[in-house]
Amino acid sequence: MKISIITVVYNNEATISSAIESVLAQTYKNMEYIIVDGGSTDGTLQRIRSFGDRIDILISEPDMGVYDAMNKGLAQATGDVICILNSDDLYQHEMVIERVVNKFSGSGCDAIYGDLVYVSARNVDRIVRYWKSGSCKSNSFEYGWMPPHPAFFVRKSVYNQYGHFNTMLKSAADYELMLRFVYKNKISLAYIPEVLVKMRAGGLSNFSFKNRFMANKEDKVAWEMNGLRPYIFTMYLKPLRKVMQYFLRPLPDNTIGIDRF
User: Fold this and answer.
1) What are φ and ψ of residue 35, in 5° steps?
2) Of 151, 170, 157, 146, the residue nearest 85 (C-alpha)
3) Do the Cβ atoms of 173 and 94 come closer than 8 Å?
4) CA gyration radius for the chain?
5) Alpha-carbon distance 83 to 87, whole Å?
6) In the chain, where the domains are located
7) Residue 107 to residues 58, 61, 103: CA-CA distances in angstroms?
8) Architecture of the domain spanning 3-255
9) What does the pLDDT look like over 113-148, one tens digit per residue?
10) Residues 48-72: what's their mean pLDDT?
11) CA 68, CA 70: separation in Å to the nearest integer?
12) What is the distance between the alpha carbons of residues 16 and 129, in angstroms, rounded to a whole number?
């Protein structure tokens, strides 16, 4: 099984190296690594190029935003499974992709998801918030549930059948894509109950109260785009779930992922 990992970046020389290193450290080797740079003007490109031919595909050109860049990566991907790792993120340990591949092989499902922790931008060992995904039921999206996008691994055939990111959305295209795949089209899922990804706090949709408000408005649009009607309380439960994540912490063995499936 070939895995395509896509990282999109723009002017992020501070963290791009750690994202790349977490990919290159993976024990699973049948991978291609695609980086899509939006035409950075800082030292980002120099840092990427310092890894030489260990980066399989590098695109550097202006784009129309993060989701347009992700679509460019998807167009280049030749793997059986697509993984998207943001330039602020890193894999929790070096066996993440190997565990994902084993889960795909054992379950035959369309997509795999796991848990994610938000960490301090200055100290990736300090957990700020714990996104424990839990099991997905047929109506989970109606109750504000969604998997963390960087810990959501999908067969390329699903993208081919149901489409890529909708660039009309500025901060909720990942939510819309997962809603379309999981809730509307009922792709089959399997859950790895462990932390797979570390995300530095301060991303696009959670950067400020204003951005969170705008993202929540786009969530409603995502339902409308798919001809779906959520409950009145659905749009309130989603941000409430995020608040609850500040009160959770992963179990000690959850950080190293031993004997989880």
Assistant:
1) -115, 130
2) 151
3) no
4) 17
5) 13
6) 3-255
7) 32, 38, 6
8) Alpha-Beta Complex (3.90)
9) 999 999 998 899 999 999 999 999 989 999 999 999
10) 97
11) 5
12) 22
- Cα 162–chain centre separation: 18
Q: Which of 78, 222, 72, 199 is nearest to 141 (CA)?
A: 222
Could you count the other beta carbons within 10 Å of the beta carbon of residue 214?
Answer: 16
Q: What DSSP letter does each residue of 158-224 carry, written as one string? A: HHHHH----TT-SS-HHHHHHIIIIIIS---EEEEEEEEEEEES--TTTSSHHHHHHHHHHHHHHHH
Tallying the residues shown for the chain, one arrives at: 261
Q: What is the mean pLDDT of residues 97-106?
A: 97
Residue type, 6: I
At position 167, the amino acid (one-letter code) is T
Q: Are strands 189-200 and 111-119 parallel, antiparallel or unpaired?
A: parallel
Please report which helix (H) or strand (E) contains residue 131, including its range: strand 127-131
Contact (Cβ atoms closer than 8 angstroms) between residue 159 and residue 76: no
**Residue 109, token pair as written in the block:** 């499902």
Q: CA 133 to CA 261: how far, in whole Å?
A: 16
Least confident range from 81-85, 112-116, 196-200, 210-214: namely: 210-214
pLDDT at 236 (0 to 100): 76
- The DSSP bridge pattern shows strands 89-91 and 111-119 to be unpaired
The pTM of this model reads 0.89
Residue among 142, 152, 28, 158 at smallest CA distance from 95: 28
For 127, the token pair is 């957990």
What are the backbone angles phi and psi of residue 190, rounded to the nearest 5°?
Answer: -135, 145
H helices present in 8-121, as ranges: 16-24, 44-49, 66-76, 96-107
How far is residue 71's CA from residue 67's CA, in Å, rounded to a whole number?
6
Give the residues across from 7 on adjacent strands.
35
